[in-house]
Write a structure and sequence with these properties.
mainly beta; 9% helix; Immunoglobulin-like; 6-stranded mixed sheet; 2 helices
């Protein structure tokens, strides 16, 4: 049940008015398919670029949302927050690449948001930044995709025999997967004060903090 409005917008020039219309409070149904143009010719969006829609809502709040590029066209979702306030919204498309070293923005265009017959007090307008949410999620995914250790070696300095100094403990025995990443040499010291996990970086984790490294 998607309503897709196709438009062309130049990377240069003045604001284009009345290109898009939508209804206040709609959710997950309104999209704009933007074809970026450069002097009348279709602009080729770099494959390594990330594209954002920067929307200033009628109530002066904003949305800064990451978009999907399909067949060299930018799909802008008009989220519930983008349509939270009735009136005229302004939008431009922003292309970023090379760790934000290169930034290119389109001309702006307006979105006419028709007032809903529902109680406006039930539609709370606020700022929305899904671009940060997605960037954080990508960072989390990278961490989760890093292969964790499934066991650690425990060093007991009080052991009387060399063969008893080191003991391997699996993640199952510790209660979960150890969230310690390759490149960190981990040793566990047992002394009269309890268990301490130390890394080569000089950081240490006591038994009271052990749950923080278990998944």
């Amino acid at each position: 049940m998607q309503m897709i409005t196709p438009i062309q917008i130049e990377l240069y020039g003045d604001t284009k008015h009345y290109l898009v219309s939508a209804k206040q409070g709609d959710r997950a149904t309104r999209f704009i398919q933007v074809e970026l143009m450069a002097y009348g010719l279709q602009f080729e969006i770099p494959t390594d670029a990330v594209v954002y829609a920067n929307i200033r809502k009628p109530d002066k709040k904003f949305c800064y949302n990451e978009c999907v590029v399909e067949n060299n066209r930018v799909m802008v979702e008009l989220t519930n927050q983008a349509l939270a306030a009735a009136g005229t919204a302004y939008c431009d498309i922003e292309i970023r690449r090379a760790e934000d070293f290169e930034i290119l923005s389109s001309a702006s265009f307006t979105i006419e948001i028709e007032e809903s017959m529902r109680d406006e007090s039930a539609i709370l307008s606020c700022n929305e930044i899904t671009a940060i949410d997605k960037k954080v999620q990508r960072y989390i995914d990278e961490i989760l995709n890093t292969k964790p250790y499934t066991s650690i070696r425990i060093f007991n300095e009080n052991a009387t025999q060399p063969s008893e100094q080191w003991t391997e403990v699996t993640a199952e025995e510790m209660g979960g997967t150890l969230n310690i990443f390759p490149g960190e040499n981990v040793s566990v010291d047992i002394d009269t004060e309890g268990l301490t996990i130390s890394t080569t970086g000089g950081e240490s984790i006591t038994t009271a903090e052990l749950d923080e490294i278990l998944v």
